[in-house]
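FAQ: What does the model actually see?

It sees only this:
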Amino acid sequence: MENADLMVTCHLIFNLALSTSNQHLSILKKLFTSFQNETFITQCQHLSCQQAKEWIAQQLNTK
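And it is asked to produce this:
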């Protein structure tokens, strides 16, 4: 970043804890596609943490 003092707002944080780089790439591709879906973002923001975790896994077809 050019300006270290610049503040930005963040509504969602995704922590990827996967065992292989191939898994990271696969999930990142699915997430970046999902981020373009307004329903995906809205659901992530309004569900509880546990509900969001389960819903995201379902949307990404991983459990």
